[in-house]
Amino acid sequence: MDFISHGLWGSITFGRKSRWSFGLAFAIGMAPDLFSFGVLYIAAAFGFSLKPDFSHGTPPESTIPHYVHQLYNCTHSFVVFLVVFVFVWLFLKRPVWELGAWGLHILADVPLHTYAFFPTPVLWPFSNWKFDGWQWTTPAVLIPNFVLLVLLYTWYIRHLYLANKKEQTRQKAISNYPLKESP
Known about the structure:
Blueprint: H1 3-14, H2 19-45, H3 66-75, H4 78-92, H5 100-109, H6 139-176
Helix pairs in contact: 1-2, 1-5, 1-6, 2-3, 2-5, 4-5
């Protein structure tokens, strides 16, 4: 799945408490790809790595530097996610539910990556098991993803609008009641 969709799914699922929560879940939802392929593109921009050629489809994995594979293993492992989630929970003495966007990213990638290009190492470092799923760039996957996101965000924005309108009506009603003066 593209990293923007990961952010959108993460924020709609785990970030609806507040704007800050929404932004945090959005960033965390994109983070696994940014901390693997984003690092590659930054390194390529500064001349430290070659930029992969996607002009003819997905390039062979052998053309992607080894460090990207290692970063991908760490950022796309549900085991690593669970360890970090529990550590943060213990450290802060409360769960940070926005981190769930990371777990959702991994779980969404499992069926949406093929053996052809970066299948998701969901059980790494304990197992190299990977699922040969469907390519997320195919129209049969991409179009439903976008349609579902549009529908969910339409519902969410409408929900926020109606909740805000209800709150404004409530505030107006409160301000119209005269205060009784005590004797």
